[in-house]
Structure formats: C-alpha cells, structure tokens
TrEMBL record:
Record keywords, A-Z: ATP-binding, Hydrolase, Nucleotide-binding
Name assigned to this protein: Biotin-dependent carboxylase uncharacterized domain-containing protein
Every Carboxyltransferase domain range: 39-320
Keyword Phosphoprotein assigned: no
GO molecular function, one term: hydrolase activity
Pfam hit, one: CT_A_B
The keyword ATP-binding is assigned to this record: yes
SMART domains reported for this sequence: AHS2
Organism: Natronincola ferrireducens
PANTHER family given in the database record: 5-OXOPROLINASE SUBUNIT C
C-alpha cells in the first residue's frame, strides 16, 4: 500500500507518482511558458487557457505557475500510484475516477490505484489537470512547458504516451487540508459561438476600409487547421490595400495575421517568434481562453475595443482570481467588506473576508 504520510499530517517530504494508461489525443505537461527567449528564436509555449490553468493550481494549493497536464479534446487515462489531490478545470471532457463522474472545478482526493479517465466532450476543448505539489519534470530555460516541434521541455519533449510514469512534487500542505475546495462560478462559459474582443493590430492601416469592415462583420468558422501554434479561420476574405507581406516582426499571443488569401490566422501559445504577414488585430488577454477552448466548426465574431478597456477587463479578471485565492475557494465567506485607506498620503483599497469557522 502506497499510503502518503502527508495525508496523516506528519509532514513527511515524499514524492508521488502517476502512470499513463491511455494517451489521449494530445496530452502535454505545461506551465506558464518559456518567457524571455523569443529574441533567440525560442517560442513561449505554455498553457493555452491561462486562467483555467491558474485556478486549477489554486484549487490544489499550488503556486499558480506550477506545471499541470493539458488535455485536448480526448483526455488521457491516468492511474495514481500514490494518494493525492487533483483538480480539473477548463473544458469539460467528462472526467471520471474509477468509472464515477467527478466535478469540474473542485479539489478531489484520489487513492493509490485509482484511475482517472475522460469520456465525451461536454463543453470547451482543453482540460487542465492540476496535482497537489505539481509535476516534477526538469525546467528548460526556466519552464517545464512542452514544445513538441522542438522536442523541448515537459516529459521528454513530447506528448504523454501509454506507460509513462511521472513524478509529482511534494504538496505544500497536508492533503486533508486541500480536499473539497471549489469554485462557485467559472470565469468563462464555453459556447460554440464566441465574441472575441480585439485591439487594433500594428498593420491595421495595410487593409482597406472594406477589408476592416469585413473582419468585424463576418462570422468566421474555426477550421480543422487549428492547433497550439495557431487557428486558421474560414469566412469572407479580408482585403489588403497592396499586399500581405511585411518585414518580419515579433508575434504576440493572440496576434491575427492575414496572409494573401485573406483568411485570418490567430497565433497561439506555440506560435513562431516572428512573422512576415500583416496583423489586422490582436485578441485581448482576457479572451485568450475563448480561442483556446474553441473547436473545429465553432464560430468566432470579432469586436474591437480600446486598449484602455482591455486593461480594465484584465484587471476585473485578475481581481476575481485574487478573490478566489483570498477565500481559499472552499471556505464559506459570510461577508466581504471593502475599505478605502489612506496611509502616508497613499490610497489603498483593502478587502476583508469574514469566513465561517
């Protein structure tokens, strides 16, 4: 019996393990990404849905940037070789433990020998599986993220396959203190038609007024050519003034390139570091998850917003995530009070939660 002493409150530093018995369609170890190396031609990679990823880690008591498993469309099968606590967020791929459904967005205790599996897709596209303690694989250039095209990071630089045994790091708290945490409301609801907000791209002036109007008034369809590198869309073509080629420049997450054929391509986590096509717009940060959770056949409508609004929307989401952390998710908050303080001439907003004991 592989009993985890941490569950019994002894605080023993041990490592757990999991074993893959079903690979899934694309199952990768990911974290916040390999930031700071684009100038050397190294893609950022990392999770596609950053907010679902962070919440999964919060639920199991990890640091927000701990490595998780990202499962796309068809989930993996995982056997637990030791006791642990897991949480699954993001797209709902119908998770089950030992054949019984488990809830999304809640920390769940698993015993040695338990098996996690997934069934049909109910919503979204990508699930995030966080393990108390996080995944213990080597960090490459400061990140445990998998970049499969370069065979970098994660578990041997590739997707997980049957027979892989992965080590988990020690939880930060006894497991019994982590079980039963939940989120009362998802940050996003995943639908088959999404409105995606964007800001103007650096080459917006390379398009005709008619082309710009087409971009914002067309319902585009996600094609089968969509992956972690980018999403190709189909719909009405976008007209350039002269041509689509530019001197290559940097590509940000969510940049929307429009090559000569006029169809937009949304660049995602595994995007190349530079590109030579005009960029009509850029998806705002808070709407990255809408793209990450879109499947082939889903519809996308673009809406232009000001940079200031994009900043305000991001602040709102970050405040929600901070609130989840403050409330420790599973504790019942009786009352939240907000105070406006001024100390030494500086203004501070302070929120105090009264938690049921």
């Amino acid at each position: 019996m592989n009993a985890n002493p941490i569950l019994k409150g002894k605080g023993v530093e041990i490592l757990g393990k999991i074993k893959v018995f079903k690979a899934g369609l694309l199952t990768l170890v990911q974290d916040q990404g390999r930031n700071g190396y684009q100038q050397y031609g190294v893609p950022v990679s990392g999770v596609m849905d950053n907010f679902a990823y962070r919440i999964a880690n919060i639920l199991v008591g990890n640091h927000e940037e701990a490595a998780v498993i990202e499962a796309t469309l068809v989930g993996p099968g995982i056997e637990f070789l030791d006791e642990g606590v897991i949480a699954i967020t993001g797209g709902n791929l119908s998770p089950e433990v030992n054949g019984k459904p488990i809830p999304m967005g809640k920390s769940v205790f698993v015993k040695s020998g338990d098996r996690l599996d997934f069934k049909a897709i109910k919503a979204g596209c990508r699930s995030y599986i966080a393990f108390a303690g996080g995944i213990d694989v080597p960090a490459i250039m400061g990140s445990k993220s998998t970049y499969t095209r370069g065979n970098i990071g994660g578990y041997e630089g590739r997707g997980l396959k049957v027979g892989d045994v992965i080590t988990l790091a020690s939880p930060h708290k006894p497991l019994k203190e982590l079980v039963g945490k939940w989120i009362q409301q998802e940050l996003y609801s995943y639908t088959n038609t999404v409105e995606v907000r964007v800001v103007a791209g650096p080459q917006e002036d390379a398009f005709t007024q008619e082309g710009i109007a087409t971009f914002y008034n067309t319902e585009y369809t996600v094609t089968n050519e969509c992956d972690r590198m980018g999403y190709r869309l189909s719909g009405k073509g976008i007209q350039h003034k002269e041509g689509s080629d530019i001197i290559s420049d940097g590509i940000a997450m969510g940049a929307i390139q429009v090559p000569g054929h006029g169809m937009p391509i949304i660049m995602m986590a595994d995007r190349q570091t530079t590109g030579g096509y005009t960029k009509i717009a850029n998806v705002i940060t808070v709407d990255f998850p809408k793209i990450a959770q879109a499947k082939p056949g889903d519809k996308i409508i673009f809406k232009k917003v000001a940079v200031e609004e994009a900043h305000s929307l991001l602040k709102e989401v970050e405040e929600k995530i901070a609130q989840y952390k403050r409330q420790s998710i599973g504790r019942e908050v009786i009352k939240t009070r907000e105070f406006h303080l001024k100390i030494n001439g500086k203004a501070y907003d302070v929120m105090v939660d009264e938690i049921k004991s």
